[in-house]
Amino acid sequence: MNSFLKYLLHRVFYMIITLWLITTITFFLMQFLPGTPYTNAEKLSPEQIALLNKQMGLDKPVIVQYGNYLINALHGDFGISFQFKNQAVSSLLSGRIGPSIQLGIQAIVVGTGVGILLGAISAMKQNTWVDTLSTLVAILGRSIPNFVFAVLLQYIFAIKLKVLPIAKWESFAYTILPTIALAMSPLADSARFIRTEMVEVLHSDYIELAKSKGLSRWKIVYKHGLRNSLIPLLTLLGPLAVGLMTGSLVVENIFAIPGIGEQFTKSILTNDYPTIMAVTIMYSAMLIFVIFVVDILYGIVDPRIRVSEGSRG
User: Fold this and answer.
1) Which of 46, 86, 146, 225 is deepest in the core (most CB within 10 A)?
2) Residue 253 in contact with residue 269, Cβ under 8 Å?
C-alpha cells in the first residue's frame, strides 16, 4: 500500500471517529436542555406529556434512544421535527441546505480572494500608506463581528442608498450583502497571513537570486512570492470554514435567509431535539469534509506530510 493511500485511509478513519464523537456528545447534552419540546407544555397534564413522550420515543431509557438514533441516522433518518408536525427532519433541512452552501462558498471565495490580493499588495508596498490601509482593513475585519457588518451594510446600501435589497432570498442581488458580511472574517485572516508570509518570502535568498537574473517584479511576486505563500494558507481553510458556519447562524436570521442557520436558531428556541441533532451533525460533517479536503491538498502540495503519516501506519 503506497504512502498516499495510507494517508487517505488515516484521514477517513479520523473523520468517522470525530463525527461519531460529536454525535454522541451532542445527543447526551440534549438530555440536559431545560423545558420540553411541546407547545404550551404548562397546560398539559402529566398523563398527556407521558403519552407524547411515548409517541416520540422519549419514554425509553437514554441509552436505548441513543442506539436507535445512531441506527436511524446511518440510514439517513433523523426523526420527525417537534416544531413542524409530521415533517421529517431530513426533508425539512434538504430544502434549506442550498442557500447556506451557496452563501458559504461565495463568502469563502470572495473573502480569501480579496484577502490574498490585499495581503500581496501590502507586502509589496511594505511600510507605506497602502500597507497601513490594508492592515487597518484586516484589523477591522477580524475585530468587528460579522453580524455588526450585516446591520451596517443593510443601513448603508439598503436603507440609505437603496441599491440592494435589505433581506429575503429571491435572486442573486439578495446574496450580495450577506456574502460581504460573512466574507470580512476570511478576508482579514487571509490578508494578514499572506502579508506575513510574503514579507518573509520576498526577503529570502532565492528571491534575491531571481532579481539578479533580471526577472520582472510582478513575475517574481507571482511565481515565487505568492505561490510559496499560498501553501501555508491551506491550513487556514478549516478555521475559516468554522467561522463562516458559526457566523452564518446569526447573519441568516438578520437577512431572513431560509437556510440551515435560521432553522437551527428556531429549533433551539423550541427545543426541537431531532432538528438540533440533525443540524449539528450536518454542520460537523461539512466542517470535517472541508478539513479532509485541506489535508488532502496539503498532502499533495507537501509530500513529506503523507510520507510521515504512511510511515506511522
Assistant:
1) 225
2) no
Place of cell 504512502: 3
Could you report the per-residue pLDDT of 205-232, keeping only the tens digit for each? Answer: 666 666 676 666 666 666 666 766 776 6
Question: DSSP state, 43?
Answer: G
Over residues 7-30, the pLDDT tens digits come to 778 888 888 899 999 999 988 888
Is a pLDDT exceeding 60 seen at residue 150? yes
Instruction: Establish how many alpha carbons lie within 13 A of residue 128's alpha carbon, considering only the half-sphere containing its beta carbon.
Output: 7
Which residues, other chains included, contact 231 with Cβ-Cβ below 8 Å and sequence gap of 6+? 298, 301, 302
What is d(CA 184, CA 173) in angstroms, rounded to the nearest whole number?
A: 18
What cell was used for 132? 497601513
Question: From CA 313, how far away is CA 309, in angstroms rounded?
Answer: 7
Is 287 within 8 Å of 245 (Cβ atoms)? yes
Task: Report whether 202 contacts 221 (CB < 8 A).
Answer: yes
